[in-house]
Design brief:
By secondary structure, this protein is an alpha/beta fold. The chain contains 7 helices and 6 strands, in the order βαααββαβαβαβα.
Amino acid sequence: MNDRNIKLYCGGRFYFNCKVEGYLDQVANDYRTILLGDVSKLLHPKATYMINEHTEYLGPFYFYLESEKQVANDIVAIEKQMLEQCTDAIFILDKGDCAGTVAELIYSSTLHKRIHIFYVHLSDNEETESDLHSPNWYPIILSRQLSPQTKITACVSREEAERMAIEMIRAL
């Protein structure tokens, strides 16, 4: 039995856009929605949510709905505060063009949070600058250097990364 309380931040890009018809189906497949068990919790944040008796989900939430739209400075300030409050931060890294997620990863690393990175390992012929074979090799290595508690897990796809992250979170 776990006697510590975990405050969780689950980073990674959102693969949906509220301006596209049928986006609710995509929201339902987001790994954070699966953890929260309800699309409305990711789209209409009112508070933090308990994932289990020891794990509290702090964020992020999807702030782009017209009814609850936030300006960029507000989003950064809110998510920065969430990162400061969390005990553990999960990051799904699959593509190289995820500037927000990389910034969150590095910031949480400087705060020495417990970090869990699930990244997509490309073929050994791609991204050969490091043995990680990921377009995100630099921030992953930097995170590990800044925060020794960083755990890195290679995955074959984004779907596997999300599945493994969900399994790890549920086991906390």
